[in-house]
Automatic annotation (TrEMBL):
InterPro entries: ABC_Transporter_SBP, ABC_transptr_periplasmic_BD. Residues 60-346 form the Fe/B12 periplasmic-binding domain. Residues 1-31 form the signal peptide. This is ABC transporter substrate-binding protein. It comes from the Bacteria. It holds the Pfam family Peripla_BP_2. It comes from Streptomyces misionensis.
Length: 346
């Protein structure tokens, strides 16, 4: 659940310079027939209703959200990244060294100017809102500068991003959307074999985590952030994919909103068996860390008598695991392990 801020306006001089660079770099290309390179380029991706064409593998990609950043790093592309931004958690384990080699443009949204200063030849984002009004910049702004912009298909496939809040889903998200993003980005960079390897490893992790697991009848509640008006997971986003994988049910499966804000009295009525808690390191909402969330649950009059609270049935996840990303698989593993530890899985 990204929190948006309005980026700073970009000076005319910077825009003019960027346009000049783009014009110089593409001079005469449009008049020539495109030839296929050894990497299969040019490549055109069908992406959230847009055609994204890359004439060559990117050399200076900028990832505007942590989800796409961790995919690029997992594909071994740190040396072709010029910047990252918008972080909710520490980087995924095993990627620390690669991540340290890539400049961090901002912990949250960078300004459009900051992104252009990195001289990107490809921009990726996890959320439609990142490349929309109120985000870093629109796709059209990048298109005018000749910079291809790609959005995670998991944030647009079967999802209405204009319904308010964090959007709503008419169709449940599946991990195939995440796997599709990995394959898209691998193709964009000409490293398809790496993409298939990453997808294969993720599928095997899901198989191992859920093998023989039966948690039917167990209700889960996913709390991302905010104590006054908590953001809790609806039916069909990443938490829905986790819930289906472990064979449990979501306490708020009756809402299609991605992250609806639901009052604690309603939570008490649903009385979930297990609470899956977002353990975030950012500082944008109240109750970001798991420690603060648990303290609230155990002291608040509306929540301290919940079954999950009395029995301390908490599963802690990174924010990235609760958003559609490569780490949703990590979410499946941790929730499955928690259900077994609590004696709730048959």
């Amino acid at each position: 659940m990204p929190v948006l801020r309005t980026p700073a306006p970009i000076p005319a001089l910077v825009l003019a310079s960027a346009l000049l660079l783009t014009a110089c770099g593409s001079s005469g290309d449009d008049a020539k027939p495109q030839e296929t390179s050894a990497t299969g380029h040019p490549v055109t991706l069908d992406n959230c209703g847009h055609k994204v064409t890359l004439k060559a593998p990117p050399k200076r990609a900028v990832s505007l959200d942590q989800g796409t950043t961790e995919i690029l790093l997992s594909l071994g592309l740190a040396d072709r990244m010029a910047g990252t931004a918008t972080w909710t958690d520490p980087v995924m384990k095993g990627l620390e060294k690669a991540n340290a080699s890539v400049p961090r443009l901002a912990d949250n949204y960078p300004s459009f100017e900051k992104v252009l200063d990195a001289e990107p030849d490809f921009v990726t984002a996890s959320f439609v809102s990142t490349l929309g009004k109120g985000g870093v910049a629109t796709r059209e702004q990048f298109d005018k500068l000749g910079v291809p912009a790609y959005v995670s298909p998991s944030d647009c496939s079967g999802k209405d991003n204009d319904s308010g809040g964090d959007g709503s889903r008419g169709k449940p998200l599946t991990l195939d959307a995440v796997y599709g993003e990995i394959r898209d980005l691998a193709r964009a960079f000409g490293v398809e074999e790496r993409g298939e390897k990453v997808v294969g490893e993720l599928k095997e992790r899901v198989r191992k985590a859920t093998d023989g697991l039966n948690a039917s009848g167990v209700s889960l509640m996913y709390w991302f952030a905010n104590s006054q008006s908590p953001y809790l997971a609806g039916c069909c986003g990443a938490p829905g994919a986790i819930t289906r994988a472990v064979g449990a049910k979501n306490a708020f499966a009756d809402t299609h909103d991605e992250w609806p804000q639901i009052n604690w009295e309603t939570v008490a009525d649903r009385d979930p068996h297990v609470i899956v808690i977002g353990d975030l390191t950012r500082k944008q909402q109240t109750a970001e860390t798991a420690e603060v969330k648990i303290r609230f649950l155990e002291t608040n009059a509306a929540t301290r008598s919940l079954t999950a609270v009395r029995k301390k049935r908490y599963v802690l996840l990174s924010g990235q695991a609760m958003n559609p990303s490569i780490r949703t698989v990590e979410g499946i593993e941790k929730v499955a392990a928690g259900l077994r530890d609590f004696g709730l899985a048959k």
